[in-house]
Predict the 3D structure of the following.
Amino acid sequence: MDEFVKIGFVEGSGNCNVLYRLKQIDHDGIFSYSEAIKVETALPTEFILEQNYPNPFNPSTTIRYGLPFESDVKIEIYDIIGQRVVSLKDSGEHAGYH
């Protein structure tokens, strides 16, 4: 079985239907494109806050969340004794996965 290596990631945005294709460039400069791939993203049906990872983290982490409709979002990070360390977001956000 072939092994695949992740070389990149394209962040999705809200409720969208998008076509993607890969461009492979060889060492000699010759390139080719993959077949187009259609990606459909459905909106979440409820508010979602996933576990951050890695956890515990130092110095960075990833926080994912989903909104079923446009909403105000406030994300703050607190230390182990309950003191706010940083406010990451305090603004409106469109429906979808973030």
Remarks:
- The chain has one domain: 17-97.
- The longest strand covers residues 84-93.
- The chain has no helices and nine strands.
